[in-house]
Amino acid sequence: MQLPLAVQLPVEQQFDTFVAGPNQQLVAHTRSIVEALAKGAQQSFKQLFLHGANGQGKTHLLIALCHYANQLNLENFYISLRNFNHYTPDMLDGFAQIPLLCIDDLDAITDSEQWQVAVFDLINQRRENGNNALVLAANKNLAHPEKQDFSLTLPDLHSRMQWGDVYAYKALDDMDKVALLELLAEARGMKFSERAIQYLLNHCERRNDFLVDAMERLDKRSLQEQRALTVDLIKRELDT
């Protein structure tokens, strides 16, 4: 299959560094769908739509699912629509039959009817083909816009979001965030004291994406200075 664009999945965003927290049921369900597809069992079209605040882990989950599919030799693709204006909607033409497709940042196209039509058509095509899975994610609940003060320019796309399971992605609590930081530190071979972890949580932005970015920056600084991660190093690198 000739795919419209090449995407390199971030190596660090796998299940080894993922903390499900209150989203364990969702994670188990998505993994089971991937496993069933990889086994080649004939099944109907599966669609999931995830919505929740930005930076809470939705992107990590979608990318981890694609990594998991790779491990099971299942063809897959991840697309973010965050920079959709860099492409044309016909980019989606090559994705009607790929077994696992994950589309992220769907709410980025809320003002583009052309892109909404393209996504609408793609969902219809994948449902007609069957035996595949489509996982969609957005910051806003596009399945039930009446609960929020916004709407798409293509109302029919709202109904398509309701074709499958709709999940409200929940934020991690403090204990889950500690577990996330510990996993990230372990994956990088970083020495990270409990005091340093608590300082990071108490003095920095607590969104998952910020914590992941902060750990990457701290890892680089720690390697440069050839020293363990301390509160002083955190203060200097993150200007807290």
From TrEMBL:
Domain Hda lid: 174-237
This protein's name: DnaA regulatory inactivator Hda
Pfam families: Bac_DnaA, Hda_lid
Gene name of this polypeptide: hda
Chromosomal replication initiator protein DnaA ATPAse domain segment(s): 13-164
Organism of derivation: Alteromonas arenosi
InterPro entries: DnaA_dom, Hda, Hda_lid, P-loop_NTPase
Cited Gene3D superfamilies: 1.10.8.60, P-loop containing nucleotide triphosphate hydrolases (3.40.50.300)
Lineage: Bacteria, Pseudomonadati, Pseudomonadota, Gammaproteobacteria, Alteromonadales
